[in-house]
Design goal:
- With 204 residues, this protein is α+β, with helices and mostly antiparallel strands.
- Helices cover 56% and strands 12% of the residues.
- The two termini are 19 Å apart.
Amino acid sequence: MSARLEELIACPHCDAVYHVSEPKMGERAVCGRCHTVLIAPRRRAGKQIIAMALAVLILIVAATVFPFLSIKAAGVANRSSVLDAALAFSSSGLLILLTLAVAALIVFIPIARALLVIYVLGPVVWDRPAFPGALRAFRISEALRPWSMAEIFVLGCAVALIKVADLADVSFGPAFWMFGALVVLMMVQDNFMCRYSVWKSLEK
């Protein structure tokens, strides 16, 4: 039975089950029902994903340090960073949990996912044995993927700024553009990764 299971792959979106037929490099195996990409091996993909994960780490750290935006109204100006936004609810003891949740969703979870990806793919890329707990680390990284909401934060800020623009002068700081680049990198990294190939490499 275990040998049969190894020859099957299930679509993560519609749960359709297929016999595995690994495509060649540059080709894709797509679900016939919902057209989700199931297998998409690429040459040197591991190194490129690690490079993107390192870039994500650098951008997150920089985006939390530099100003995110500045608002000027009635002669009064104020600057705010990403951490200021995350800590905006910390003045009340009852909202500490909300503060921690916001900080985790927009900062700490993306950092954790990038570190886990580097931990998992580093040995695989350089043909070394996987680090201890690599399978569990990759499983945790995949479980955290829906909870990494940096793009939701950027969209929420964009909607809020459109409404505020009529009442005050709003200017974007360096962290805003870093966060925008961060969101794009995270989306490219998630779409670029062939999870089937990663699992097979770790199992070997």
